[in-house]
C-alpha cells in the first residue's frame, strides 16, 4: 500500500537505539494541572471535593458573630464567562479573568434567655460577587494588565519533622548537638534541641528556650510519667550479701568489669574483674543459668530512682522519682524498710540520663507552672492566668484554625516516627511530641540516622495552584474580621449576605500576588524554548523559601535524588546557581507536591512495558537499572551483573535483584539540555552554558531547523504553543496569511459546528520585543489529521524548533581575528540575511484631560513643517507601512499651555474683541534617538462616550469586516454541511408535502433540490417518522448554531464599539508598533549549543575568507583553541555529522536533478529508503510525489536525530560521511 508524505513535518533519521516505552508528558502540564485543580471550573456531579478554592472557602467559613447569634455559611461558587478573551486583554492592557460568584447562606438564631437553647429564626441565601479570578491561557501563562506572566513553582522544605545536628560547629569541643524541628504548613515551629551540657530544651517560634520537660508537663505528664515513658526500670533487691540486680547479657557485651561478676544465687564468680567480656562470653553466662548478679552497696550510688518512694501508711515521701542515690539516701530507704529500689536503666554508654538531667534543671514543678512559663515566653510582659495560658498553649499546636500540618506533613511525620494517624489529623497530638523527643534522645544515644534535608523526599514543589490557594486564604482572612464586625453591629434581621461582604481584600490579595510576588514573573518570551523553560522552572527563592545570601553550598549542590526529577545541568551561573533549577523531561509532580519520575517494572528478571511513577522516598527501596543496560530480544538483561542504583549508591548488582529500570536516557536532564546533540561528550560546565544560551536565541527572519538535532525539537515546538496544531481531523477550506479555516470531517458532537478557524499572529511584539509571526504550512483542499502542525511560529521550521542556522564553520586561526573566542564572519551571512532578526518596539501616547483643558491628538501641530507630518493621516496618527527614523513624529499631540497673567488693558481688549486662540505646545510622540524602522500596527483606544476620530473609525471598520468574514465563512461551511446531511436524508424518498410547485409523491432527486432554494428544503415531508425526527433535530441544531454564531458576532462588535476602559483622566490612548530589521554586526554575541560562545569581531568580504578544495567559502571561522581546554568535544562531533548531513543533501539533490532529466525515480527512492531504514517512517511505501517532496526537503541537508546518551557513535559518523561520498575521517 502506497502512502504519501505531505512535507509538512521534518523527517529525521534517528540514531537512537533505545525504544521509549511511554510518551513524554506535556511539557507545561505542571502549570496547567495545578491551576485546574485549584479552580475546578466545572462543578462535578455530587459537588466539588475539598481541594483548591473549595478548601479555602470551607476553611474560612462559616463565620460567626461575636455573640454567636448568626452564622454566615459558604454553599458553593461558580465562575461567569470572562468578559474579554486573551487576545483582547493583551491589546487593551487588561487582565484575563473570570468573575467569581459565591453563594452564601446567612442563618440567624434565636436564643432562649432562660434555657440558652438556640433555634433557627431565619435563613437567607444569596449570590455574592467576590471579584475577578485570573484564568490561565491554554499555554500555561496569565495575562495581567496586558502582559503575559508566569508563576514559577517553588521548592520548599516539606512540612513534617526533621532531625539534624550542628556538625560540631556550635561548641568549641566539636561535640554534635542534635536537634529536632517540627515544621507545619502554617503555624508555630517547634524546635527541640540538646545544649552542650546534654540538657534537652524546647523552643517555640525560635523564642527563648525552655526545658523540654516543661513542654511535656504542659502536655499533662508529671515527672514520674516522663521518666516512665522514656526509660526502662531495673529493680534492685536487698539480700544478705548486699543487693542484687537482673543479669542482662546485652548490657555487658564489650564491657571490662571493674569488679568480679558474682552469681547472686550460687555466690560463684562468673567473670573476673579487668577482663573484657566478648558478646559470646556474655551470652554464655546467661546460658549457664545466671539470672541475677550481686552488687555492693557502693554500686547503687549514682543510680536514679524510677518512682517516688513513699510510705504506704503515712503517705510521707522519702525520695522523688529522678533523685540520685547516695549513701545517706540508701541508708534512709533501708531504715524505712524499702527492700526493693526501682532505678532507671541508665548506663551513660548506651542510654544517657539526658531527660532525667533536664528534669533536675527544670524549675517548673506542676502543669500550671509549665503553662505560665510558656505563656511568659510567648507573650512577655502580660500577666498570665491559668485560663489564658491554657488557651494560648492549645492555640499554638492543637487548634486547626491556627495550626495546619497539611496532609503531606502528617504523612511525613507518620513515616518518620512510625505512627499511624489518619492524614486528616492536621494538628499535633500529644503522642507526636512525645515520639519526637524519644527519637531525638535515641539519636543522641547513637540509634538511628539524621535526616538529609536536601533529599527530594524532604523538599516539595508548590505550584501555581497551591501558591494561589495560600494567597486567597490570606485575602479571605482579612475579610473575616470586617464581616464579624458588621454582623455584630448591623440589624441582622434585615441584612442580606451581600451587605456583609466587602470583597476588596480578597481581590487585592489576588492582584498583589500576580502583580508583585517574587514568583510572578514577566514571561521570558525570547523564543519557544525560553517560554517552556520558564514554565518548568523550580525556584528555592521567594516568600517562605531561601534567600540567595543565606543559602549554603549543600542546598545548591546536585543530590542523588535529583536523578530523573531535577536537571543536574540547567541552572543559572552566578548568585542563583543551584537555587533555580529545571524540571527533568519526564518528571511529574504528585498530589503531595513531591517530584516523581517514571520507571519500567522488572518482574522475575523480565523487563515489562508497565510504567510506574515514583517519588524519591519510594525509589530508595528499589534497585534501579539504567536505561542503556544491555537487553536481549526477549526483554531480559544480558549481563549477570547490571549497573544499578540503590538508596543513592551506584553498584554492580546481580540481575535477579533488579526491580525497576529507567524509561529513557534523557529522563535525567531538562528540556533545554536534551536539545544538545552529543551532550555526553561535553563538560558539564559548558553544557550548562549551552542550555542557558539556547534560551537567548533571537527568532530569525528565516527559520532553519538544525541538521543535527536530538529528536526533541518537534516536542518543544508543539508543547510551547509556537506552532499551531490542528484540533480536529478535516479538510483545509481557506488559507491566507492571517487565518486558516478547517472543515471538520469527523464530527461526533452534533452541538458543535464543523468549522475550526485558526487566526494567526502576524508581527506581534513579544515581552522581549522579539517578533511573533506565524506562517501557514497547508494549502486549500489538503487533508489534515488531528495533532498535525498546520502553521509555523517564531523559531520553528516545519514543526521543529529552529533556534539558529546551519552554516559552514572552519576551526582555524585567522590573522588574530578569532583571538579569545572572537568570531569571524563572512559578508554573505550579513548580505543574505542569514542571522537577521526583527524586533518590534511599542510607543504609547496618552491624551489627558488637564486643568487647563483637554490634550488633543491632531495633525494641526504648531511650528511643524508639512514635510515632518508627511506620514500622518488627517487624525494625526502615522500610516501603517511608513518608514520612520529618529525624531520623526508618530502621533501629533498638542497640550494647552498655562497663560501668563494679563494686564488690565489686555483684559479690556479681550472683552471687546473676544477670545484669542489659547496657547498650545507640541507634545507629539516622536521616535527616540537611535531607533528606526517600519510602522506595522497602530491601535487607538477611546474613552467611553468620547467621539471617535476617523482613524479609530477605520480601524474599527476593518476589525468588524474581519469578524464578519469569520462569521460568514463559518456560516457558509455550516450551511454546506447541514444541507448536505438534509439532502442525504431525503434523497430518493417520496415526499408527502413540499414547497410551492412540488408535485406530491414525486421522488426527490437532484433536479428537484436544485430547482428549490436551500432554505425551502425544510418544507419537504416524508412518511418515515424516523427521518422526520432526524430532520427536526437537524433543523433545531442548525438554528441554534446560527443564533450562536450571530450572538458571538454581535457580542464581539459590541465590545469593539463600546469604548475602552482607560485610567482616570485619560481621554484617548494611541499605541504605535515599529518593527526594526537588525542585521548581524561586529559586537554581537553568537553561540553554539555546547557553551561555545563568542563575540563577532569582524565581518570579512567573501573573497578574503578561507575556502574548501572545491572553492566554497566558509561562513564562520572559530578559534580551535576554544575546544581542548573547555572540553566540549560535542561541537567537533556535531560539525562532523553536520558535514555528513550536508554532503548527503548534495548527493540527493544531484539524484533529484537526474530524476528530472531522465524520469527514473528508482535510484532516488532506493537511496532514501536506505537512508531512513529502521526508522518509524516506511519510506519504501511512499508514492512518487511523497518521494519527491522528501527529496526536496532534504536537498539542502539531511536532518538527523542523535538523542542524548543514546546517539551516534564515531562509527556511525564515519559511515554517514562515507555514504555521502566524503572522507570517513571528516577531513575535507
TrEMBL record:
<dbReference type="Pfam" id="PF04563">
    <property type="entry name" value="RNA_pol_Rpb2_1"/>
</dbReference>
<dbReference type="InterPro" id="IPR010243">
    <property type="entry name" value="RNA_pol_bsu_bac"/>
</dbReference>
<dbReference type="GO" id="GO:0003899">
    <property type="term" value="F:DNA-directed RNA polymerase activity"/>
</dbReference>
<dbReference type="Pfam" id="PF00562">
    <property type="entry name" value="RNA_pol_Rpb2_6"/>
</dbReference>
<dbReference type="InterPro" id="IPR007645">
    <property type="entry name" value="RNA_pol_Rpb2_3"/>
</dbReference>
<keyword id="KW-0240">DNA-directed RNA polymerase</keyword>
<dbReference type="Pfam" id="PF10385">
    <property type="entry name" value="RNA_pol_Rpb2_45"/>
</dbReference>
<dbReference type="InterPro" id="IPR007642">
    <property type="entry name" value="RNA_pol_Rpb2_2"/>
</dbReference>
<keyword id="KW-0804">Transcription</keyword>
<feature type="domain" description="DNA-directed RNA polymerase beta subunit external 1">
    <location>
        <begin position="599"/>
        <end position="664"/>
    </location>
</feature>
<dbReference type="InterPro" id="IPR015712">
    <property type="entry name" value="DNA-dir_RNA_pol_su2"/>
</dbReference>
<dbReference type="GO" id="GO:0003677">
    <property type="term" value="F:DNA binding"/>
</dbReference>
<dbReference type="InterPro" id="IPR007120">
    <property type="entry name" value="DNA-dir_RNAP_su2_dom"/>
</dbReference>
<feature type="domain" description="RNA polymerase beta subunit protrusion">
    <location>
        <begin position="27"/>
        <end position="505"/>
    </location>
</feature>
<feature type="domain" description="RNA polymerase Rpb2">
    <location>
        <begin position="158"/>
        <end position="235"/>
    </location>
</feature>
<dbReference type="InterPro" id="IPR037033">
    <property type="entry name" value="DNA-dir_RNAP_su2_hyb_sf"/>
</dbReference>
<dbReference type="InterPro" id="IPR019462">
    <property type="entry name" value="DNA-dir_RNA_pol_bsu_external_1"/>
</dbReference>
<keyword id="KW-0548">Nucleotidyltransferase</keyword>
<feature type="domain" description="RNA polymerase Rpb2">
    <location>
        <begin position="361"/>
        <end position="462"/>
    </location>
</feature>
<dbReference type="GO" id="GO:0006351">
    <property type="term" value="P:DNA-templated transcription"/>
</dbReference>
<dbReference type="GO" id="GO:0032549">
    <property type="term" value="F:ribonucleoside binding"/>
</dbReference>
<dbReference type="InterPro" id="IPR042107">
    <property type="entry name" value="DNA-dir_RNA_pol_bsu_ext_1_sf"/>
</dbReference>
<feature type="domain" description="RNA polymerase Rpb2">
    <location>
        <begin position="521"/>
        <end position="589"/>
    </location>
</feature>
<dbReference type="InterPro" id="IPR007644">
    <property type="entry name" value="RNA_pol_bsu_protrusion"/>
</dbReference>
<dbReference type="GO" id="GO:0000428">
    <property type="term" value="C:DNA-directed RNA polymerase complex"/>
</dbReference>
<dbReference type="InterPro" id="IPR014724">
    <property type="entry name" value="RNA_pol_RPB2_OB-fold"/>
</dbReference>
<feature type="domain" description="DNA-directed RNA polymerase subunit 2 hybrid-binding">
    <location>
        <begin position="725"/>
        <end position="1227"/>
    </location>
</feature>
<protein>
    <recommendedName>
        <fullName>DNA-directed RNA polymerase</fullName>
        <ecNumber>2.7.7.6</ecNumber>
    </recommendedName>
</protein>
<dbReference type="InterPro" id="IPR037034">
    <property type="entry name" value="RNA_pol_Rpb2_2_sf"/>
</dbReference>
<dbReference type="Pfam" id="PF04561">
    <property type="entry name" value="RNA_pol_Rpb2_2"/>
</dbReference>
<keyword id="KW-0808">Transferase</keyword>
<dbReference type="InterPro" id="IPR007121">
    <property type="entry name" value="RNA_pol_bsu_CS"/>
</dbReference>
<dbReference type="Pfam" id="PF04565">
    <property type="entry name" value="RNA_pol_Rpb2_3"/>
</dbReference>
